Amino acid sequence: MKKILKTYLLSLLTIAMAFSACKKFGDTNIDPTRSSNLDPSVQLSLIQLRFSGDLNVNERTTFMMTMPLVQHIAGPYSNRWGGIYFRDPNIMGVLWEDSYGTDLVNVVDAVKRTTNVPDKTNLNAICRIMKVYNFARMTDLYGDLPYSEAGLGTKAKFDTQEEIYTSFFQELKAARAQLDGAKDIVKGDLFYGGDINAWKKFASSLHLRLAMRLVKRDPAKAQAEAQQAYNEGVFTSNGDVCKLDHEDVQNPYEDGKGNIRGNAVSASFFNGGGVPGRFTTPFLDQLRVTNDPRMKYMVKYYVDIPGGNPLSRIDLTEPLVEKVGYVGVIPGRYIWDGFLSNVIVDIPGKGAYTAVNNDQKAQPANFLLRFNAPFLHLTYSEVELLLAEATVRFGASFGGTAASHYEKGLTAAFQQLSFFPGGPTVPANEINTFIQGNQLIPGREIETINKQLWITLFLNGPEAYANWRRSGFPNLIPAVGDSETGESLTIPRRFEYPFTEEEQNKENFQKVLPALGGVDSWTKRVWWDKE
């Protein structure tokens, strides 16, 4: 992996610089004076690496917004945007600005460069799948957006999310059918190393995820698309997961340095010397009430040293758990709220230590936040849990009972912790004991399944936020802190568009406002998030 990343780094930097001029004027344009001979396989590498390696996007979209919104983390001042609903379109707009300016421009261009090219049919299919994947993150957060005309050198029209989703399903079916192991070998693929069968499974599994988005808006369509995805062949083991194994470097903001090799979500926890995010009380309560053994693996106490490297932290878990149990931060509160008195503990090999308030607020284990932690794009655990829900909703046509899919999803969720360097291999007896104690309850299956998806999707904030909105579970209570927006304390349902789109693509921007009730507000809902 390191060799691949280093080999492509210089080319990726060149690509990023070539397209940097496209960030202005609607964010959806391709500069017509750009290079005409870019290698689309290098563009593919850039798109894949930036998805989880761009600190600017991942810190704001994941750490500052979606992880606090879905109540995975709380505590730091930098969680206030999603944690206490501090409304700032500039923060919400970073994903739009950076993605249209670099990622989406490149993926649209890569698809165009490989269309109807006989020796690039597999590369074209993979780029088409990546186009769906990248645009899905965008539309699920913003709603209607430029899609069909994105990257065409115009002030692009906004497509409705319904139109975009229709295209997603068509593209995934066509791209999967186009993949052929007997044709071109794909270079530059950092997800699967050009494995065509793996990409077929990813396309179908992504199809399943997107199909289940529609369960509130169009159940019949959701069922039909989920069934087709399953029939075509989704993930069947943890060996199929889509992940990117990052390098052990802490990404800076300066893209000019080319450092997008590390895990940017991890870097977000330690960037700028701020306080790392703490687990929320609802998250810890979910682990506690189900006797989830992941508590002892995922949840730790460390001496609070803002910034730095997670591997340099001093572990206080064993002595602190013995004295205070597991303490989180209430959503909407800062780490200094509910201030805790000092506790003296004995650190093995180091002696007595006075644990202050910040030390006593539980946080993610080091292995989860290493800079070389993998980013899990789509997992076997998620697929099986979605199949369990699909079986409950639509009937037994997905290869097993809801209970069997649920148990496979839980097993995979525990096992995927071992993907992380230094992560645990959870003993089978612990997994089995947990499953036996947390069976599906008739009438509450969907709630139980989606509470487990909430845990499985930890560190994938945008996806966890989307799954919570479409399923309604877990039942998150709006933050109890004081709103700094003057709005009612309700959990926002979408991102607002950036100011630049309103200014530079005004005619098209104004056409989307009626569907939002005339106001671009984050309390409105995207199309599939039917009330």
Automatic annotation (TrEMBL):
The keyword Signal applies. Residues 1-20 form the signal peptide. Pfam families: SusD-like_2. InterPro entries: SusD-like_2 (IPR041662), TPR-like_helical_dom_sf (IPR011990). Keywords: Signal. The keyword Membrane does not apply. This is Starch-binding associating with outer membrane. The lineage of its organism: Bacteria, Pseudomonadati, Bacteroidota, Sphingobacteriia, Sphingobacteriales.
